[in-house]
Write a structure and sequence with these properties.
The chain is α/β, with parallel strands linked by helices and 439 residues long. The chain folds into two domains: 206 residues, D-Maltodextrin-Binding Protein, domain 2, CATH 3.40.190.10; 222 residues, 3-Layer(aba) Sandwich (D-Maltodextrin-Binding Protein, domain 2). It contains 19 helices and ten strands. Strands 1, 2, 3, 4, 5, 8, 9 and 10 form an eight-stranded mixed sheet that branches. A two-stranded antiparallel sheet has the order 6-7. A hairpin with a 2-residue loop joins strand 6 and strand 7. The chain starts with a helix and ends in a 6-residue tail after the last helix.
Length: 439
């Protein structure tokens, strides 16, 4: 086992990923901990949040000289694809920034016993704390805190609409309305991509719920209803008629993520279905090149909703320093620090108190200000089904089945009907791998 772990660590180092100090204590006695205690955070960034967090941690270290925090900055792909294997092997950082909140929850540490004021978390993070709790964990446990509350939302290139002389559809516009308008704009201005979605089951799920998809039946997946099939047929047909392009999703396979943020920043996309985490990045990559903004989630017959989500800073239970980890988490979640972090990163807060007070965002970008205003109103109209799906421990199994099989249907590797059968088979197999038998 020790040999295999060393080989895995060497492979990561060869890939250019910073080494992670093992905190599992596997197979050997640890040397006496030097002072100060060193903690490691595996962290990815969408925009400037790594720089902002490092600044905040520098202040923390000045106030807490017995703790040093190393911020290991890695690509998102490392967190999504390699961190789970590290955690399963007993290796890993002391804390990590993750997006698969439920899927990795078995690895999280309940820091409630180590917090000075756990009631503060209960009061201000009540709506998201359940997202981190493992199925067999403490139902009152505090297993992490959101580093950003995100919402899937479309972005439009307003300049392209203006150049085409076509008005933006209104706040209650349907997916059909947006598809027709975006395609008309693209044809007039010669943009290659009328609509682009992130290649992600999570991004598709808001549309599914809007079309009437229920997603879950109690604690079991219930994916293949009429609402779901309606959304999948729409996406399938859009790839056939040029509203969406096979060049984007078709460039990768399986469950691999593929965003279209670069194409949107280069004014090649009319409407881009992504999320609020793109705001900090777009201020840099787009700047004043063209006018853009978030718009309300398009409507289906059941709802006009996106999917909530985001990223969280979670403590890893193999850490040798649970008390120090709790101190870092409590510092990050404290109201003044949490407010500054969100003001500088342009994220929506998961903190109830700050959501009521409002965040003094540090930006002069008119496009960002418009987008944040839209996003705040959209949080209030997000479907309860979407919140329930986001907190579902096994949602990643469903998301992966959706994206891999619909992609095969889009690329004519199977029919749409066959893709539904394969999705269901993938879900059954995914649950079986976790020891759960589905009917």
């Amino acid at each position: 086992m020790i040999f295999r772990l060393k080989v895995a660590a060497a492979a990561l180092a060869a890939a250019g990923i910073l080494p992670i100090v093992s905190t599992a204590g596997i197979g050997q006695a640890h040397a006496q901990t030097a002072q100060p205690v060193q903690l490691r955070i595996m962290w990815y960034s969408d925009g400037n949040e790594g720089e902002v967090l490092r600044d905040l941690l520098d202040r923390f270290e000045k106030q807490n000289t017995d703790i040093k925090v190393v911020l290991d900055r890695v690509p998102y792909k490392t967190v999504a694809e390699q961190l789970p294997a590290l955690l399963d092997s007993g290796q890993g950082p002391d804390l990590a920034r993750v997006t698969d909140l439920g899927g990795l929850s078995r690895h999280y540490l309940d820091v409630r016993p180590h917090l000075k004021n756990p009631a503060y978390f209960d009061e201000n993070f009540a709506s998201t704390l359940p997202w981190f709790r493992p199925g067999n964990g403490n139902k009152d446990g505090i297993y992490g805190v959101m580093s950003q509350l995100a919402l899937t939302i479309p972005f439009v290139n307003a300049t392209l609409f203006e150049q085409a002389g076509i008005p933006l559809p209104g706040p209650k516009a349907t997916w059909d309305d947006w598809a027709k308008a975006s395609k008309a704009v693209a044809e007039k201005v010669k943009a290659p991509y009328p609509i682009a979605f992130d290649r992600s089951g999570h991004r598709m799920s808001g549309m599914v719920i809007s079309m009437g998809g229920k997603m879950l039946n109690g604690d079991k997946p219930a994916l293949l209803d009429d609402g779901f099939k309606s959304a999948m047929k729409q996406i399938h047909d859009w790839h056939g008629n040029g509203t969406m392009s096979k060049a984007l999703w078709g460039s990768v396979g399986g469950t691999t993520y593929r965003g279209a943020n670069d194409e949107f920043a280069n004014a090649q996309v009319v409407l881009y279905m992504s999320g609020t985490w793109q705001l900090p990045q777009f201020t840099k990559t787009i700047g004043k090149t063209f006018n853009w903004q978030a718009v309300p989630s398009p409507c289906g017959p059941a709802a006009c909703t996106g999917m909530p989500g985001g990223a969280a800073l979670v403590p890893i239970k193999t850490t040798r320093h649970p008390r120090e980890v709790a101190r870092v988490l409590e510092y990050f979640a404290s109201e003044p620090v949490y407010q500054e972090y969100h003001a500088r990163t342009l994220f929506l807060p998961a903190h109830a108190g700050l959501a009521k007070k409002g965040i003094p965002y540090q930006t002069d970008d008119v496009n960002v200000k418009k987008s944040l205003a839209v996003a705040v109103t959209q949080v209030a109209t997000t479907s309860p089904i979407a919140f329930r799906m986001q907190g579902y421990e096994h949602n990643r199994i469903m998301f992966n089945a959706m994206i891999s099989r619909i992609n095969q249907a889009i690329n004519n590797e199977m029919t749409l009907t066959e893709s539904y059968t394969r999705m269901q088979s993938d879900i059954v197999d995914g649950f079986a791998a976790k020891g759960i038998k589905l009917p």
